[in-house]
Amino acid sequence: MAIKNFDQLLSKYADLITSVGVNVKPGQDIIIYAEIDQAELVHRIMEAAYQLGANQVIVEWQDTMLKREFLKHASEATLTNIPAWVSVRAESLMANQTSRISIVSSDPDGFSDVPSDRVSLYEQAYQKANVAVRQATMNNDVAWLVVSAAGKEWSQKVFPDVTSDEAQDKLWQEIFKINRIALDNDVIADWQQHINTLNEKAAWLNEQNFKALQYHSAKTDLTVGLAEDHVWEAAESFNKAGNRFVPNMPTEEVFTSPDYRYIDGTVQSTKPLSYAGVLITDIKLTLADGQVVAAEATSGQDVLQQLIQTDAGAASLGEVSLVPDNSPISNSNIVFYTTLIDENASDHLALGAAYPSNIKNGTQLSVPERQAKGQNDSIVHVDFMIGSADMTIDGVTQDGQLVPVFRQGNWA
What's the whole-model pTM score? Predict the structure, then answer.
């Protein structure tokens, strides 16, 4: 790395991930999901976690090339027949309340040369086999965190006009910047201040108790009903043990649960979506009575259709999230080609499952009970970005009045 003091910055990043991100507690088990080229960051995270008293740190290494070749050549029976140990392991990890750290670094378009039906077959089968992890994560039973690291292929995608090494340095610099990491700052204090600011926005929205949100821009005309007893959340969450964690770093969003039965209109994406290693661009959805009735995309159309057809819940929305256009990531004018970062530059919605914590006492309710309040359920949860500088959002009160929420893409 040509970045000055890179080692110090990386160590501060590892400390942030462990002390604020998953908030490691003594005796806790941690699992890290990472590409094989991110060993240096993984080692720093392990060291920091053990210093905080972690019991054991498990690493699940991933390799995009190996998975791509598997997806290309394995039989369809093999793609859909996930080994039984995957489910057993998932259940064991979650029963032990193992905290999860996922490091995003791979090529966002790494499976573009794999037939889309093969990608979807495997993705759906794996999600079903790994359901214990998905449910525990969505329910905040465990602390979990998604962060990023500058992989070479991803870096070149973001910065195609410079050499591979220069691109990787530039991406690392951006990752440090958007995560508030500098040599001369107290990153923990900066993050606490940021969390407090986002919590203030969530508190105001909770006071309003809107019935719905109305979105208007040059590309979008959409009304999204909000679930009964919905709760707006921001950066911080709390796991089953009552410990605070921050699920996404970076984060600029305030989010809640839509009512999947009352969503009508059209919405278009404003940034590419990388899903299952395939880029989906220019998504346009039409929804009626909460269901997607038409879906188009300039690229990745087949994958988008297969995503929506995953199960009944995949054709509706599970999250509505507000992000001002005047935010650090948006102001960088960089498309990062990964939802983790791009969703924090833009208002976004999610196809699929809702977070149980986004309604009052939701983590204590059964799926049918949550659905009765309007929360969607699915084995998928896929965010896509819809925000823009011309976005207007109004809150609809319980008696039908309109309250400005966003004007020109920013908080009103």
Answer: 0.91
Question: What pLDDT is recorded for position 145?
Answer: 98
User: CA 177, CA 199: separation in Å to the nearest integer?
Assistant: 21
Compute CA distances 114 → 74, 303, 351, 402, whole Å: 12, 11, 23, 47
> Under a CB-based contact definition with an 8 Å cutoff, are residues 235 and 198 in contact?
yes
Cβ-proximal residues to 402 (8 Å cutoff; 6+ apart), any chain: 214, 394, 395, 396
Mind listing the pLDDT tens digit for each residue in 194-232? 999 999 999 999 999 999 999 999 999 999 999 999 999
β partners of residue 26: none
pLDDT tens by residue, 390-411:
999 999 999 999 999 999 999 9
Q: Distance from CA of residue 285 to its chain's centroid?
A: 20
User: How far, in Å, CA of 209 to CA of 33, rounded?
Assistant: 38
| Residues near 221 by beta carbon (within 8 Å), at least 6 away in sequence | 215, 265, 266
What secondary structure does DSSP assign to 292-304, as a single string?
A: EEEEE-SB-HHHH
Per DSSP, the three-state class of 215 is strand
* Structure token pair of residue 399: 């008696």
